[in-house]
Amino acid sequence: MGKTKLFLTCSNQDVKEVTAFVNFILAIELKSEDMICTSVPSTKIPNGEDIFNYLNKTLSDEICVLFFQTTTIQALYV
What we know:
Elements: E1 5-9, H1 15-27, E2 35-37, H2 51-58, E3 63-67, H3 71-77
């Protein structure tokens, strides 16, 4: 079994709020290499990488996915 990873996805417009959450998670000792957040520079998918290929090779069967539903995201779909 692989190591559990945390995958966070959100709108780039919500980077301030999500960065605060990522900083909280890092403060409780989850390492940045165990987290992928699409909007936070220290944990984002490297530039030039295909997102689907990167996630496929990086994530194991043990994953926790968090989707931040904010007013920014709601405005896109409502």
